[in-house]
């Protein structure tokens, strides 16, 4: 099969467009490589499922409402994600002692294992991505990306 180049979404003529396209491409590549470690195992999870696991890994015993406030995501979407993770045995739910209408969510042993794998893979990919840069170049890249973020945050 012949290798083709997708030039539709990767303009090299306009540096402003090219920078954001490249950031987008790098993030897709990073996510693909990060989740590759799980695809061959029993838990083929999505990026959003990984984010949900990470949240409950940081805030065990939180509720779906806590996650919705934190993420700004639609409650129905989160309910489907949480149900799927519970069905896979990655999240455990316990009724809140003080308010039985609330369900407290924590990672199961399998959920913690998946989260550990994701964190290890993220660390490995960070090292891989920055391996040819010295600490000054890494710091410069970080500062430039922070400036891009600030520009986007303050722009309307």
Automatic annotation (TrEMBL):
PANTHER family: HTH-TYPE TRANSCRIPTIONAL REPRESSOR YETL (PTHR33164:SF43), TRANSCRIPTIONAL REGULATOR, MARR FAMILY (PTHR33164). Keywords: DNA-binding. It comes from Undibacterium pigrum. GO terms for biological process: response to stress. Residues 16-150 form the HTH marR-type domain. GO terms for molecular function: DNA binding; DNA-binding transcription factor activity. Coiled coil: none annotated. The keyword DNA-binding applies. This is DNA-binding MarR family transcriptional regulator. PROSITE patterns: HTH_MARR_2 (PS50995). The keyword DNA-binding applies. InterPro entries: HTH_MarR-typ, MarR/SlyA-like, WH-like_DNA-bd_sf, WH_DNA-bd_sf. Pfam families: MarR_2 (PF12802).
């Amino acid at each position: 099969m012949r290798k083709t180049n997708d030039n539709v979404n990767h303009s090299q003529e306009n540096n402003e467009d090219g920078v954001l396209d490249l950031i987008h491409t790098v993030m897709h590549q990073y996510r693909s490589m990060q989740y590759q470690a799980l695809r061959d195992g029993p838990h083929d999870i999505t990026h959003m499922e990984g984010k949900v696991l990470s949240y409950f890994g940081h805030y065990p015993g939180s509720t779906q409402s806590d996650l919705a406030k934190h993420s700004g995501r639609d409650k129905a979407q989160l309910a489907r994600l949480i149900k799927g993770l519970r069905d896979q045995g990655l999240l455990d739910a316990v009724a809140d002692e003080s308010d039985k209408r609330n369900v407290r969510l924590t990672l199961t042993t399998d959920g913690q294992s998946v989260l550990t794998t994701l964190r290890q893979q993220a660390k490995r990919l960070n090292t891989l991505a920055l391996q040819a840069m010295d600490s000054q170049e890494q710091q410069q890249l970080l500062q430039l990306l922070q400036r891009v973020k600030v520009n986007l945050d303050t722009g309307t």
